[in-house]
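Can't paste images in this forum, so I'm doing it all in text. The chain is below; anyone willing to post the predicted structure tokens underneath?
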Amino acid sequence: MDASSDPYLPYDGGGDNIPLRELHKRGTHYTMTNGGSINSSTHLLDLLDEPIPGVGTYDDFHTIDWVREKCKDRERHRRINSKKKESAWEMTKSLYDAWSGWLVVTLTGLASGALAGLIDIAADWMTDLKEGICLSALWYNHEQCCWGSNETTFEERDKCPQWKTWAELIIGQAEGPGSYIMNYIMYIFWALSFAFLAVSLVKVFAPYACGSGIPEIKTILSGFIIRGYLGKWTLMIKTITLVLAVASGLSLGKEGPLVHVACCCGNIFSYLFPKYSTNEAKKREVLSAASAAGVSVAFGAPIGGVLFSLEEVSYYFPLKTLWRSFFAALVAAFVLRSINPFGNSRLVLFYVEYHTPWYLFELFPFILLGVFGGLWGAFFIRANIAWCRRRKSTKFGKYPVLEVIIVAAITAVIAFPNPYTRLNTSELIKELFTDCGPLESSSLCDYRNDMNASKIVDDIPDRPAGLGVYSAIWQLCLALIFKIIMTVFTFGIKVPSGLFIPSMAIGAIAGRIVGIAVEQLAYYHHDWFIFKEWCEVGADCITPGLYAMVGAAACLGGVTRMTVSLVVIVFELTGGLEYIVPLMAAVMTSKWVGDAFGREGIYEAHIRLNGYPFLDAKEEFTHTTLAADVMRPRRNDPPLAVLTQDNMTVDDIENMINETSYNGFPVIMSKESQRLVGFALRRDLTIAIESARKKQEGIVGSSRVCFAQHTPSLPAESPRPLKLRSILDMSPFTVTDHTPMEIVVDIFRKLGLRQCLVTHNGIVLGIITKKNILEHLEQLKQHVEPLTPPWHYNKKRYPPSYGPDGKPRPRFNNVQLSPIDEREKTEEEVHLLNNTTL
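Text version of the structure:
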């Protein structure tokens, strides 16, 4: 098969958008291997002092080797410490290296806060542009336009002469059917224009700018490389199109994409510091801090951002990264607070404060909201994944611009008549969270009020609901159905689309409805035993806004399965310690209910859908398979390609590289002895040979390649040998064929391995890559038996190095995989087979 014609070929850990269900069809011809640790000097050839460019780097859609990267960083650190006492310049370089981590997270926090403020201001202005324009200052949104007006009234505080609707500008009518229809048409026009411009920019300039970005961020932080996903073009297009997508009125949010924006900033700034630009593992520490900064500016929750990075996205999170994440979140929040994009001296639009305590009875409706959140999360994950899978497998997915236009058109047509769906989602959440006071004019606060209007907010008792409240409840029910359906079809389209805000809006709507119901129940039946002890007549017992906040947390927890970080984020939104228990009860209930239908959150589900090589640490491996059941090659596959340490030529190695697609090769002692010596990466071999041909005289195709410490004696007329021991990994990770896969999976998760070799008595039998493990896990999930026979058959197929006659078995440059005759079984094998229950 032509290597260039196969899109799956270069990927060792799962390619972009390669569903795992396709992997079992591909065979081991596509099996990729990866290097282990590094314990050699940085120069490649013994006669060269300088390192070879490209060695130690990775190709696109490949997985990094965490062990090798950490060893490289320790070697760099030791070299800097050994030189810092030699001169003042070396001491300065040492200090710069030590402080570079704090510098890069400071720059990341500054950029994240500035971009978040810019996005908030632009999105608010463009959202209001769908309804009208400020004639006195075109750059003002609706609220800013009316700030300085002296002609506004309490009931109509959003109306002022300076703000003109499109109907007033075009047909000169402010009221009536004609005005309504013209505003309706202009609303749809602007929504479609913003959506079309957003999807066009994404498609033409930066395809990676679409979606939430969090599934890919999680995959990248686990060690996968996606070139360009965190680049400057992606950052610029994502920032612009995020504003357009939010302003279009689609059922999406900007909070999730802000994490992607912050990680783009961290990635770009990391290239200014060699400590991070040359080490992929160290760069991921910066990205972990950047994700914390992204959540910090998204919700105004610096501590919640740090916990989000720790709980949800980070794969490797040492203590030093915790401190730097906290500092990056602090800097980002400070910058956003200085910009003050909402004009309320708060970091988010829907910051609220409650003053009424909650009571023990209220835990029951709070838990019910948690059940609703878990059910919503389970439904959304299944429905959205089914739709995304259908999009991938049908022609509909080939027309992303058309899909976005259709979704935007349906959203705009249905959203405009309902005032709660016409609102910007953040504005909707703010209104649902807000407690009713004497200064509120919303329909949700249209209670029959007989009290003295001069009383302060804290003294307002529970009151009977008026017609406005009942009308608002019906509108909220319709808005709830609309949001549930449209969010399923919106998340995953080719524009920046976050899930935090739509999920919170759905939960806030449900919570507000439940809160009003409990409030009215307590008012009309205050003599019931559940209310009699703590809810007196004329007292302010129930806070519907609190129920909206708890419902929002429950629905977001049901979708993402976050727990600790979510509670802290919502706690920082409200600023009240006393509501932590209701939040914890609702969030944990939503997680338990959601886990009953499936343990995957929405981000893990999208990672699996796209085929990204991500080993989720939350999953438990409970099966009894062994390493021999998973390793490649299988029984009927081509033999494992290996190198010998001192009897192959340059042409032999180049032919093997050209004829195979593997990313690395085990190095054995000789044809007769299959004992493992080390592991050589395909990329390093190619670079080393090319460099040797250019810089060393006498290196030809017939030159002997030597991986051993000492070059073997050669005839005098032989060409000059090529020594490649310095690129050889002398300590690759190995397991025996009897090792339980539970242990193997744990090793891959905790050490971040790309591959490990399978041996038996020191003889190489096969290899296990991260992709092999993901394929095996997928087979087990689908209740498909592994394609390999039981382990004792594997054992029978791998004979000892010497036959029963005492002579070495004939072998070539590959491990022998042919089964041996029954009479050739060793005593050990017979004993093991006889004592095995099949």
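Residues 262 and 294 are 5 Å apart (CA to CA). The two ends are 39 Å apart (CA to CA).
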